[in-house]
Sequence to fold (174 residues):
Amino acid sequence: MKYVFHEYPEKIRREFAKRFVMTWDEFHAIHPQYYDITWYENAFLWDIMSPELPKISFKSALEKLRRLNCDVIVMSEKIGGNYFGRGLACDGEYVDEFVICCNSASLADVVERDWLGAFEADLEERAFTPVLPPEIYVFDEDMNWFVAFTHEFDEVSEDVMVNAKTRLCIAYGF
Fold:
């Protein structure tokens, strides 16, 4: 996958959050059990988005990106309390808090290979180095749509690879 770093990553992050992430007051009105703003400030972005956003299958999320076959923006989580500690694998190092531009179809291939490859490596007890972190947000330049890939999945089977295919994804604007 070829990519370039976005020229204005902080601007992109602010605009994405403003458009798709609930404010503390909006979030707290829906989820009063979260009385601590610290939790909110360290939450994954997808955790503090509207619960009305549609959840879609991992397969469907990949198909959407492949079908679009266009330039997209890919944004990682910011480092916070829930951060897994791994960014974009780039020249033997990890780049945290990245915003890149790439082709959606080639991105879908990498996302699928990274996710399923990590599960396969665990089964085979071997090392595997994904290119992307588990949480990424993919969207168009105008932010008319997005797909969020999360680290969450359901344990629906004793077959780990069946479970891997239940990865939680969220979509908007399709």
User: Anything to note?
Assistant: The helical segments are 9-20, 24-30, 37-42, 58-68, 104-124, 160-164. The CA atoms of residues 87 and 96 lie 4 Å apart. The two ends are 24 Å apart (CA to CA). The mean pLDDT is 93.
